[in-house]
Give the backbone structure.
Amino acid sequence: MTSADELIALVRSYNPATRDALIRDAYAFGEEMHEGQFRKSGEPYFMHPVAVAVILAKQQMDDATIVTALLHDTIEDTRASFSEVSKRFGREIAELVDGVTKLTNLQLSSTRTKQAENFRKLFMATSRDLRVTLVKLADRLHNMRTIRSMRPEKQAQKARETMEIYAPLAGRMGMQWMREELEDLSFQVLNPEARNSIIRRFIMLQKEAGDVVERITSDMRLELDRAGIKADLFGRAKKPYSIWRKMQEKDQGFSRLSDIYGFRVITDNEADAYRVLGVIHQRWRAVPGRFKDYISQPKSNGYRSIHTTVSGRDGKRVEVQIRTREMHEVAETGVAAHWSYRDGLRVENRFAVDPARWIAQLTERLETGHDDEDFLEAVKLEMYQDQVFCFTPKGEVIKLPRGATPIDFAFAIHTRIGSACVGAKVDGLRVPLWTRLKNGQSVEIITADGQRPQASWIEIAVTGRAKAAIRRSLREEDRERFVKLGSELVRVAFENVGRRATDKALRTAARTMGLESATELLARLGSADITTREVVQALYPELAARGDTQEVAQERAVAGLAAGQSFRRAPCCQPVPGERIVGITFRGQGVVIHAIDCPTLAHYEEQPERWVDLRWQDGTHGAVNTVSLDLTITNDAGVLGRICTLIGEQSANISDMTFLDRKPDFYRILVDVDLRDAEHLHRVMTALEAESHVSSIERHRDPSRALPHTHSPAPAGG
């Protein structure tokens, strides 16, 4: 464990004016408070806060952040109180420690609704003082470095949480080194076989080809020296997880993968950075579409760099990043550069972003969502997406995620413009609304009075802001229909338990469930935000419980059909009980049941007479609903049998299995499983996801299997 003197010496190396007495006092106080506490590994607990402080000291953080790191678990895990910490170390540090405690207490891997609520809390805490998040990230990094002492199931939970939340957050804040390490540490827990396989391939490659990094570095150094450019040059192989992600995205094996090496050139000034670019492009052939200039168009977290990919020796691609020393400092520490010290003074880096302004921009974009799903979607998009820069006809720059469309561009300007959008011109040419925008394009939005967002736009838009605005408009438009559908749903549900859905009963249920009115309750029922079971439970819990024990006959599985009308599940989306559904009539074939989010439904938008409002009957359904699961599993002895056993242990039957892809290390298979309902599906997928030999799992939906879109009967056997 690092001693107080060693920690102070580390801080003093970049901040000679540090308040060493304050750090020493915090060290002593933390050690006293945690005395007698031990980590799972058996080490004294206080070594963890000290390790977090060291991580932050290596980022050259200010004294308050270092002290917060030493004390970050005292209020939560010891007898120390907020008032005691405030009295001894000042209110600023006490509030930082309290902020970290609140972040620590967020259960970020819980249900989606709870997760959205916790994301909001996380960003609220972040907006007050970003140093709270910096300490929490360092805390998570050390916990991941020492995760092997935890139980396997706890390791998997923490690793998933890190991969989904903390690693993207570190990347979004510009701390790319931390993001890469967090991802790789999580990858080591979640898929050790895949990681070890990539490391073995690296070792074999090095034996066959020698030290590629050293050879390419020498070649680049020679070219820079010839041009008389002074610069530092670094090269490295990319992290295993980064390579694994590329393999998955490109669906390529390791041997076919290029650009697995990255090189960085650090110059004294901006002019030299562009000179280096010219030298590299003259010596090696640039790869089209792989050039990005973040110096002229920096990222919102202050990141500036030139990125290019070139074909090096033997046709191998290598990625090169070029930046100045100031830009490099921001690239290494991101938003944290605002607090960095050197020689006892706060670093005056003109590229460092004001954290208050950065977080204000982030939270402003994340506040556009109306409900939890919108908010979670916006968070994930903000965290993961890179950016493209497009121009309005007046020359204003609009920043959007990669893959954005003219619809996203329109909503980024103003919700009113987005809602009235009927077309777009890109660089003067009329284009479809689903066109993917590219860097530097000029976009003009064409609007019309009376236009409203269309349901199909949800699939076209990629930004949380656009999706939220579209959904909000559709909700308002559909509210009357939802209320009508909700009235019918609740009437049938109450009749099933021998009660009447009177106005008074609905008002009472709404009040019990915390809703403002009976109309709001009906609208939420109709839009599937709540279920009839929850409404019945709110008023008659004993009847709801009794009703749950009745198994629904397969021929009665769906409510809302006309007398004698038959139904079948759509093969394209395979809806199951518990999911919101809609029916489409087929002449001579009855009704085909689709999940409400099935893309195939877009084909019937102009045929409203064929739509039927339906719902699944309340109660327990039989395990007769087939769902296809897309699995990628380790190619090893006994793994496939283990997968089949896991599915059987969840009381689910495998009705078919198809191999989609066979690779030396992994298989990709399509498994058809017979299930009762959405909850049963969730249990099966969770059990499979927790299996270490399963590297990915998702529900497989195939629009190509949809029935013909006309009224004509399908061919025999179709």
